[in-house]
Amino acid sequence: MKRGLILIGMLALVLTGCNQNSGGSAGSSNNFKLDNEQDKTFYAMGYMLGMNLQRLELNDREIQAIFKGVENSAKNVKSEVDMNNYQPKIQTIFKERMEKVAKKQESSGKKFLEDFLKKPNVKKTESGLAYEIIEAGKGATPKATDTVEVHYHGTLITGEVFDSSKDRGQTIKFPLNRVIKGWTEGLQLIKEGGKVKLVIPPELGYGKAGAPPKIPGNATLVFEVELFKIVKEDAKKDAHAGHDHGAEKKPAAKKAAAK
């Protein structure tokens, strides 16, 4: 996932008053019919932009206020508020809402992890990674420096899918030392041909920042990963093709995430 880029883009768009919540237009779109391809294209644009603020848990009135700002700005109508005064308030609200969501995620994630650990055959590593080996595999065991080819299915603890190579029908190749810590550790627990279920706490995943818009801060992640093979040297050049669960997260840097 392009976590850093998405997060920076989201903040910039909000702070510049662009009010990208075109998705917020859903408040009035109940009465608007998508009659042609152009309507559908602009609707898709609004929906994609609105995804950036899904995790803020906006109420109907807040969505309507955002939509009014979008409409006025798009039509070049003078703002009803002093944007210089309200930009800091936007920052404050954004920060408060994201922190609130992160606290909820932290609490619910811990409960999910505790319940998962009560199941048969589930173990926990010293780092806090919980796992269930579905198939141990019979080939070689990968090292952190190896490139591997896998299928994976990633969800939040609610079951919401944020990324899945299985759904796309295409395996993925990537270096194990270029992904989130939970993956680097978890894939070394099985051999080629093996399959493992990982429950990854935030400190081994995307941390407090998350990977917006699909992965909130402090999210506990659930992955089922099937390890097909360790990629040979001459095939490593193809690693990362179609893959966006990338390197360990740093500000404005790529990391493994949802599409």
Written account of the structure:
With 259 residues, the chain is α+β, with helices and mostly antiparallel strands. It has two domains: 3-96, no CATH class; 105-238, Roll (Chitinase A, domain 3). It is built from seven helices and seven strands, in the order H-H-H-H-H-E-E-E-E-H-E-H-E-E. The chain has helices at residues 3-15, 26-29, 37-51, 60-74, 83-117, 165-168, 181-186, and strands at residues 122-124, 130-135, 147-156, 161-164, 172-175, 195-200, 221-230. Strands 1, 2, 3, 4, 5, 6 and 7 form a seven-stranded antiparallel β-sheet that branches. The longest helix has 35 residues, at 83-117. The relative contact order is 0.17. Residues 1-27, 240-244 and 246-259 have low confidence and may be disordered.
Q: Sum up the overall morphology in one term.
A: elongated
From the 3D coordinates, which CATH architecture of the largest domain would you assign? Roll
How helix-rich are the residues, as a percent range? 25-40%
Q: Which CATH class of the largest domain applies here?
A: Alpha Beta
Structural domains: how many: 2
Question: Could you tell me the number of beta strands?
Answer: 7
Strand pairing plus helix content: what structural class? alpha+beta
Mean pLDDT: 82
What is the CATH topology descriptor of the largest domain?
Answer: Chitinase A, domain 3
Tell me what portion of residues adopts beta-strand conformation: 15-25%
Distance between the termini: 6 Å
> What is the C-alpha radius of gyration, as a whole number of Å?
21 Å
Order of helices and strands: HHHHHEEEEHEHEE
Largest sheet: 7 strands, antiparallel
Alpha plus pi helix count: 7
